[in-house]
Amino acid sequence: MTIKATAETGLHTTTVNVHVTGLPPAAPAPSKILGLAPAIFYGIIAGIIVVVVAGTALVLRLRGDLD
């Protein structure tokens, strides 16, 4: 960019170098499932499945359906 100005002593000129850089893209927000980190969410789901399967096996065994 060149800047020119006039004063009592005459015309003055100066050059200014302008460097424009872009910002790096922002990191994506961590994904959440129902407000929980995926590892915690899937851990809870796995725990529920284990409890349901164990409970079902216990009920069937007590009824005599499993030997």
Structural write-up:
This protein has 67 residues and is an alpha+beta fold. The protein is built from one helix and two strands; from the N terminus they run ββα. A two-stranded antiparallel sheet has the order 1-2. The longest helix has 26 residues, at 38-63.
Task: Summarize the model shown.
With 67 residues, this protein is α+β, with helices and mostly antiparallel strands. The protein has one helix at residues 38-63, and strands spanning 2-7, 10-15. It has a domain at 36-67.
Run of helices and strands: EEH
Question: Shape, please?
Answer: rod-shaped
Number of helical segments with 4 or more residues: 1
Unreliably modeled segments:
none
Share in helix = 25-40%
Question: Structural class of the secondary structure composition?
Answer: alpha+beta
Described by strand count, sense and barrel closure, the largest sheet is: 2 strands, antiparallel
DSSP E strands, number:
2
Rounded to an integer in angstroms, the radius of gyration calculated over CA atoms is 36 Å
Distance between the termini: 89 Å
SSE topology:
Elements: E1 2-7, E2 10-15, H1 38-63
Antiparallel strand pairs: 1-2
What descriptive keywords fit this protein?
2 strands, alpha+beta, 1 helix, single chain
